[in-house]
């Protein structure tokens, strides 16, 4: 994965303002919003995960950013605190297509992902039955 080039403190401030403006306009939605927040700080996934406040692995950050997992409310609150955000509700249609019930819908898994998931569940069942 390419390393994010270092940015000036002025650039970080500008990016943080942009992210805050997008959040106020209800345009900052998961999973892409998480990546925008991280990139606004000029941090790689590993650097973002290493922040003492977050306590996540780089893999968990990647999974959230790509929509493979649904983070808990507590995780979202912790991450949002870095930007002075808090978790809340946004009226339907705000930041999305008009009338859309949710801001983000997960993509269905690919056949390969489904097969891996089935294999993992089968292995877990086997372990429980032992």
Automatic annotation (TrEMBL):
MF terms (GO), sorted A to Z: DNA binding
Stretch list, region Disordered: 98-130
Organism: Bradyrhizobium frederickii
Source organism, top-level taxon: Bacteria
Name of protein: XRE family transcriptional regulator
Residues covered by the HTH cro/C1-type domain: 34-90
Lineage: Bacteria, Pseudomonadati, Pseudomonadota, Alphaproteobacteria, Hyphomicrobiales
SMART domains: HTH_XRE
Biased composition regions of type Basic residues, renumbered to the chain: 117-130
Classification via Pfam families: HTH_3
